[in-house]
Amino acid sequence: QVQLVESGGGLVQPGGSLRLSCAASGFTFSSYPMTWYRQAPGKERELVATITTLGGITDYGSTNYADSVKGRFTISRDNGKKTVYLQMNNLKPDDTAVYYCHARVFLVDYWGKGTLVTVSS
Asked: Average per-residue pLDDT in the chain?
């Protein structure tokens, strides 16, 4: 079955960096777009970044970001490792949230359990 497992969250000071990872299994990873979402306390879940795929031929896909993270976050994927990454730089307290990995496979939405990122001094 489809599984998504996030890792890499933690406590970081404002201005710091973290790299999140999402290990995927149970589907042809290279053939599907992957997305990172986040949910802050008391707020709705929001899209952070998406990466598509060029038919699985290369690891590179086109990307899309929420305005609030453009220029600070970078999404990437390694099809050989079936993993999607989210490099987060210049973190701000407003980035504090649980970050979720998402894939839509055969029109079914799959989510990981999330990894908590806390940005605080």
From this structure: 93
Q: What would the pLDDT profile of 2-51 be if each residue is shown by its tens digit?
A: 999 999 999 999 999 999 999 999 999 988 999 999 999 999 999 999 99
CA-wise closest residue to 6 among 41, 39, 28, 53:
39
| One-letter identity of residue 87 | Q
∠ Cα 2 43 1 (to 5°): 5
Distance from C-alpha of 92 to C-alpha of 35, rounded to nearest angstrom:
21
* Cα(94)–Cα(5) distance, integer angstroms: 24
